[in-house]
């Protein structure tokens, strides 16, 4: 075979060959997603997060890849999960499931951009310097659920105005617990009601907490914002029904699943905004230039079916204030 014919043959064949390793397409930007909750518990919220990315031009699997890590309510696992993600050359790290995951991420890196979704005050926990000027590598969304502790207790008292004893359930392992307990006590003092603080970090402790609430004959129970409580909400809804304790929740989806009532912002919108912020960072924005976002609307949701099962009559004032009433 002549040399010219050989070169032509090789050239034609090469057109059908796969790209050599040195010419392979560049890997897609990698987004880390760290949550103290579980994948099963967060499906719809993750969809909202992906929606925030997609409407800004980043489709998972096409424009970006996302690595998910779930602590399943076990906060002690978060440091290792954060370290694992940090070692994967992330373009941005998104943390959800309240302060525990955000604090673990902040402790793990000072260089990789972090976008958090938390329920309390991120300044109080040292996540950012200020809401308007976060500084450093961290910014995000505060759903302000923790700062509504007093308002929820007030609404619970409006539902049961003749009761003078109430309870507040917290997870002592949550960084917000100490602050939220203080807020609850101040609200109780202003309302001139007696408040019992109940602690639970495991399912067996939940049993004990509801039993204690019943024994102390509290008029109602307000549940603090906590990822573990979200994971255990099925058991808690059953306990509230079994002990016939009117219970105030912190997210509306729990009321749609059978809870009595809730007062909170739209959590899905917070996750969507986290996707929007992640997209901005992928396009070159710096966390320090993105102010911490806060909700502008809060929703009161009431489940009349649950109220009827508890033998409660919801005051007309609360019905009128409700954004959604579940018949």
Describe what you observe in this structure.
The chain contains 13 helices and twelve strands. The chain is α/β, with parallel strands linked by helices. The protein has two domains: 30-144 and 266-289, Rossmann fold (3-Layer(aba) Sandwich); 146-264 and 299-326, Rossmann fold, CATH 3.40.50. The termini are far apart.
Across the major sheet, the strand order is 7-6-8-9-10-11-12
Question: What would you report as the Rg, rounded to the nearest angstrom?
Answer: 24 Å
How far from one another are the termini? 86 Å
CATH fold-level topology of the largest domain: Rossmann fold
Number of domains: 2
Mean pLDDT: 90
Low-confidence stretches: 1-24
Task: List the defining traits of the structure above.
single chain; 327 residues; alpha/beta; Rossmann fold; 2 domains; 13 helices; 12 strands; disordered N terminus
Set down the secondary structure blueprint.
Layout (H helix, E strand, L loop, with lengths): L2 H12 L15 E6 L7 H12 L10 E6 L7 H9 L5 E5 L2 H10 L5 E5 L19 E5 L6 H11 L5 E6 L6 H15 L2 E6 L3 H13 L4 E4 L3 H5 L1 H10 L4 E3 L2 H5 L4 E4 L2 H16 L16 E5 H6 L6 H6 L2 E3 L1
Parallel strand pairs: 1-2, 1-3, 3-4, 4-5, 6-7, 6-8, 8-9, 9-10, 11-12
Antiparallel strand pairs: 10-11
